Amino acid sequence: MKIYIFLVIAFISIAFSACDLNGSSNNTPQILFVTEPMLNAKDSLIPYLTDEAGVYRLDTISVGDTVSFRILLNGFSNHLTSYYLTRSDTTVTKMILPNKNSMDSVFLTSSSDYSIGKFIFKTNIFNLYFPFKYVALKPTNDAKISFSLTSDANFDGSMSLGNNSVNFVLKTPIKVAKSISNVN
């Protein structure tokens, strides 16, 4: 009988030590395109995977084109902590961000720097719809946008695989705009 009680206690101990009793759930955050990026509010641009890890490519755009992005930042059950949206070269492209008052309602103004694409979240933000526009200013083959999102997920000592951040790069080659000439 003592062995039976010992085995039951041992089984219960193992079962409880294998559980995460703090009630938290950890998920790797996601950056999702709500819709395909739109070129000049008319044509959709499909991001293609390249042979470089974490690097995608959009179709070539022309100087003067505006690409509209509709992004969903999702932390699932984890709080979002930071979001970085940076351009490789600020002289060949510019970004048009959401209204400053809207951004101030979800980002810490003391820690964020919108002009360089640094967005630090206020507390209790689990997901966010983040639209922005990307304008081509000069021709180049090297224009890139880097996306980075971090949450408070904690995978230390966890059996699950995951990370508390997600990163990827989107290449956007820019060409000279074709001029329209009159044909007689």
List keywords for this structure.
14 strands; 6-stranded mixed beta sheet; elongated; mainly beta; 6-stranded antiparallel beta sheet; 184 residues; 36% strand
Describe the structure.
The chain is 11% helix and 36% strand. It has 184 residues and is mostly beta strands.
Secondary-structure-derived class? mainly beta
User: How much of the sequence is in beta strands?
Assistant: 35-45%
Distance between the termini: 104 Å
Estimate the mean pLDDT confidence.
85
- Could you state the order of secondary-structure elements as H and E? HEEEEEEEEEHEEEEE
Uncertain runs with pLDDT below 50, 5 residues or more? none
State the helix count.
2
Give the radius of gyration.
23 Å
Number of distinct beta strands? 14
Outline the biggest β-sheet: 6 strands, antiparallel
Tell me the overall shape: elongated
Residues in helices, as a percent range:
10-25%
What does this entry show, briefly?
The chain is mainly β.
Indicate the topology:
Blueprint: H1 2-17, E1 30-33, E2 38-39, E3 43-44, E4 48-49, E5 55-57, E6 61-62, E7 66-74, E8 80-87, E9 93-96, H2 100-104, E10 118-120, E11 127-136, E12 144-151, E13 165-171, E14 174-175
